[in-house]
Each structure stands twice: as structure tokens, then as C-alpha cells.
Amino acid sequence: MELHLGSLDTKEIFSRWLDEESNSNYGAYIPFVGTIRAEDGIEALSFDIYEPILEKWFIAWQERAKERGAIVKMAHSLGDVPIHTSSYISAVFSPKRRVALELIDEFVEDFKANAPIWKYDVIDGKRIYAQDRSTAMDGAGLLS
Amino acid sequence: MELHLGSLDTKEIFSRWLDEESNSNYGAYIPFVGTIRAEDGIEALSFDIYEPILEKWFIAWQERAKERGAIVKMAHSLGDVPIHTSSYISAVFSPKRRVALELIDEFVEDFKANAPIWKYDVIDGKRIYAQDRSTAMDGAGLLS
Amino acid sequence: MIKVEFLGPIGKAPIEIEAKSLREVSQKLKEDPSLVDWLDKCAVAHNDTMVNSLDTPLEDGDRISILPPVCGG
Amino acid sequence: MIKVEFLGPIGKAPIEIEAKSLREVSQKLKEDPSLVDWLDKCAVAHNDTMVNSLDTPLEDGDRISILPPVCGG
């Protein structure tokens, strides 16, 4: 897992991950690249991350992937990420395509639901919490 | 759609496709990279392709993707591809992640079942049709 | 004349036959012992379009392709 | 003392309170008007482990994190 200030260098990360596993004998490599869309007049998105829980979430996913003979990798941005640049890359490597296709779907969806990351629209230099696009985490409401 | 003699230059293709769509405002880019696994003593796999039908298959997929606001891309090797190098990359670009995750799965699975490509193991320099890993295409047996 | 071509691993040179429909092509190919093990596994294209009916009408100069089981990727 | 920290957009400084269980933390936080709109949407971590029970026992020096709705990617 890696966190970078600002936009991700997508090509560098894709290539480095490929090289890291070049002799691991995986038959399928599926990265998911998330790029900031221009919409609603935003100039960028901005991200807060609570790293200790993200790290635990990711370690649990590494174990789930390992049980299926696969591995997962992840990179995310901290702070401001301008439109048309990337803030998120996750990837699965697996011997077989079926496991890889299923895992990337589950991994990305669980990431969206349970990774402790908060997103803000940046408009006119101001940071506005993207509340309507955010998802309450598993177990939300415990204290209410 | 692009066909290359021998192994694919995976990094070049990933980067070029990213650049091609850098201003298209897609939020999700999912490539699937297929790499030749070392198994059963093979030194390489080798591929025959019947390009006119592959081209039609791919055009039909471009239309299916377009109906969902997405695009697909594809690269494949012709001839021999040594182990631990890549023979296949397909990719989906889509505004939204859900469409992208579903399309890459359907696109890769239909590719495996219906793209007119024949695979051979290369062992001691000899080319042996990978019959047991091959799938009869939709409509097989019509003439029998 | 109809041209019949055998793709990929079948390893048989193209042939030319007389036929007015795919049904007639089927009848002629079934007489060839080298194709016995292939026909039940193979799909068929007519002028590079995949077809599913033996009643597909053929015209002089048409091309039929015999496609054995595939494994791209 | 238990340290309670409010993550991401809540924008509230950490506080220290006396509590023997999450139930007591809940009671104290519900008294804070600035948290009324947040508590029903927020998940909770105890020393950086997500928790699901109000009966979670707490010890002096423990840390509770309040996690509002997320949107990574």
C-alpha cells in the first residue's frame, strides 16, 4: 500500500507493479485506475486518509487474496488531485483470470465502502465535503 | 484493436491508451493483462489469429460498450510469446466504476470463448495445439 | 464454386467444391476422413460472418471458414 | 481518560473523557450539539480496530475514533 501527495504517477506505478511480479508466474494482472472527472465545476478533488485503519483494512485484504492464490496492491492520493489526473490505483495479480476478475470487483467495491478516506470537492479553492457521494461504513450509527 | 508479432510491450500499450483517453473524462480505466505462465515445461505459447472475424467480433463489442457509455480496447500477440511475457491486453474506459467492472468481466470472458485465436504450446521448438484448454465457439458442430 | 478454408490447427489446405447451401457443404465435408474428428467441434463462418443455419444459401464465389475450438489470451 | 478523535470532515478537535465502555462514550457524545448530525452516520474504531458493540470495555489511555461516511477512489 502506498500513499502519495497529489496525483498518482499512473504509468510509473503500473510499470513498477508489473516489474515487481515479473517472475511470480501470475497469468492475470488487473489494475483499476480511478481518474478525477470534470463535473459540477470542480477544479480538483481532495482526500483525507486515516492511515492506521486503512493499513489494517489492506492487510486483511492481502490475507483474503492470499487464500485464493492471488495478491492485491493499492496506491492512493492524499490532498488535492486536479481533474483528469488519477487519485487511485488498485490491482490484483492471480494465476487464473476468473479469480482475478472476481477479486478486483470485490476489492474495489469494498474499498469504496470501507476504506477510511474522505473526499472533498475543490471549487474556487474551497474544500467541500462530498457528503452526498459518501457511504456510511459497516457498523455506522453505533453511538447514536 | 492491434495485433503485434511476439510479446506485447505492456507498459507502452498501457501508457498509450491512458494518453489517448486523457481528456475523455472517463473515471475508470481497467486493463486486463494476460501473461504466459511457466507450466508443463513449455518455453512459449504461440498464436494463430483469423483477423477478419476477430475484427468483426471487436467492432460488435465496441458497439455494446458504447451503449453503456464506455469504450473497449484490445491488443493481442501473433506467433510465439515466451513465458513471463504478455500476449493479451484488453481494457475498458467508462465514466463510472460499476459499468467498467462489469464490462471488463464480460469482455474478457467472451473473448476467451469467441475470439478466433488458436493457442499452441511450444515445447522443444515444436508447436502443439492446446486442444484441452480450447473452447468450441458458439454454434460449433453445425456441419457434423 | 465455393471455397472452404480450414483455420488454425486443422492444418488442411483450402478446397473448392460445388454447393448451393451449407447443408451440401456439410454432406461433402463429412465424406473426408481427415475431418471426422473436427466437424463436431468446429464453428462456421460464411464470408467472414458466423452462421448458425444449415439452410444458409450460398452463391458462386462464396467463402466458408471452419473454425476449431479457440483459446486466445 | 479516553481520547476521542473525530476524523475527516467532522472538523472537531480531539477530546478526553472518562468512560468505562463505549456505551458511556455514546452517552457523553450525544450531549454535544455539534455531533447531532454526525453520530447516526459514523462508524467507530477502538485503538484503530473497527468495533460493533456498545459493550466494548475501555481502559485508561484507550483511543476512540469517529469515522464519518467515506468516499475513496
> How many beta strands in the DSSP annotation of chain C?
5
Describe the sheet with the most strands of chain C. Answer: 5 strands, mixed
Biggest beta-sheet profile of chain A: 7 strands, mixed
Please state roughly what percent of the residues of chain A sit in beta strands, choosing from under 5%, 5-15%, 15-25%, 25-35%, 35-45% or over 45%: 25-35%
Mean of residue pLDDT values of chain A: 97
Q: Separation of termini of chain C?
A: 36 Å
Question: How would you name the oligomeric state of the polypeptide chains in this document?
Answer: heterotetramer
Question: What percentage of the residues of chain C does DSSP assign to strands (E)?
Answer: 25-35%
Q: What is the rounded distance between the termini of chain A?
A: 33 Å
Q: Tell me the number of strands of chain A.
A: 7
Shape by Cα distribution of chain A = globular
The computed structural class of chain A is alpha+beta
Report on this model:
The complex is a heterotetramer, with 2 copies of chain A (144 residues) and 2 copies of chain C (73 residues). By secondary structure, chain A is an alpha+beta fold. Chain A has a single domain, classed as Molybdopterin biosynthesis MoaE subunit (Aldehyde Oxidoreductase, domain 3), CATH 3.90.1170.40. Chain A has helices spanning 10-20, 51-67, 97-114, and strands at 2-5, 28-35, 44-49, 71-82, 86-94, 117-123, 126-129. In chain A, strands 1, 2, 3, 4, 5, 6 and 7 form a 7-stranded mixed β-sheet that branches. Chain C is of the alpha+beta class and 73 residues long. Chain C has a single domain, classed as Beta-grasp domain (Ubiquitin-like (UB roll)), CATH 3.10.20.30. Chain C has a 5-stranded mixed β-sheet with strand order 2-1-5-3-4, with no helix packed on it. The longest helix of chain C has 8 residues, at 22-29. The radius of gyration of chain C is 12 Å and the shape is globular. Chain C starts with a strand and ends in a 6-residue tail after the last strand. The relative contact order of chain C is 0.32. Classes of the chains: A alpha+beta (144), C alpha+beta (73). Chains in contact: A-B, A-D, B-C. At the A-D interface, strand 3, helix 2, helix 3 and strand 6 of A face helix 1, strand 3, strand 4 and strand 5 of D.
